[in-house]
Amino acid sequence: MGNLGLKSKNSVAKRFAVVLFSLCVLLSGCKTITNISGDDPLEPLNRSIFGFNEGVDQVILRPTAIAYKELVPVSIRSGIRNVLRWLNGPVIVINDLAQANLDQAKNDSLRFLMNTTSLGFIDIASDFDIKYKQEDFGQTLGSYGVPSGPYLVFPLLGPSNTRDAIGRVVDYFLNPFSYVGNANSRMPYTVSKNILSAVSFRSENFEQIDDLRSSSLDAYAKVRTIYRQQRRSAINNGKAPVNISAQDPSKLFEESLTFSNNDVKTVREVSRKQIKNVDTK
Asked: Is the model's pTM score more than 0.90?
């Protein structure tokens, strides 16, 4: 049994070493403000996956979100959202430090510790004006000038790009909660957490997403535009040169995918301009 435990720890250490080596290679450039690429070379494939995700939303996720909103009290739904945020706390602090943002790392560490008293269910820190701010390794790479790479759409997971996809994997290995329990229990935990996050997010943004879909001339192009703009804003700490929304950028996409009326109006105008350009050609 001791040898098995040692082998398991060595395996984790080796994987983490690979992650750290990749981090060092990717972060070797100078720290600059990133301009997100507009390339979408995989658009036909992305659109097919997007269509699949839309079908899953209509058949499974949307009805589940309706039931979740109707059956689960607001206080419980709020607590679940708080727990999901709390579980990401260590990753947020690590990325604050990786971006050399010491003041934010201090605030996020304090927030995590304060909310740990309720295992994240009660957002005590917000009562002391220590607000939630999403940080991830994709943002960290972007803050050091790593390009976004091609736009990607993953089944069930939704919009991303090469840089953010790598960041998502790294964040998993950086999070201490990923190593809680034995190997057999980690996959169910990860799947359950992702499903609960999706349902919670869909219920919180129910009207915005439905409105975006119903007002869309091209839903795929809208989501792609909003995702790129949000990521630029997140990487630049809200200092993006585009006016996508007056709200906190962490509220727009993952942390989850939140749309404001300004977002819908902005992307609708972009879509109309694109259609006019096609007509003139």
From this structure: no
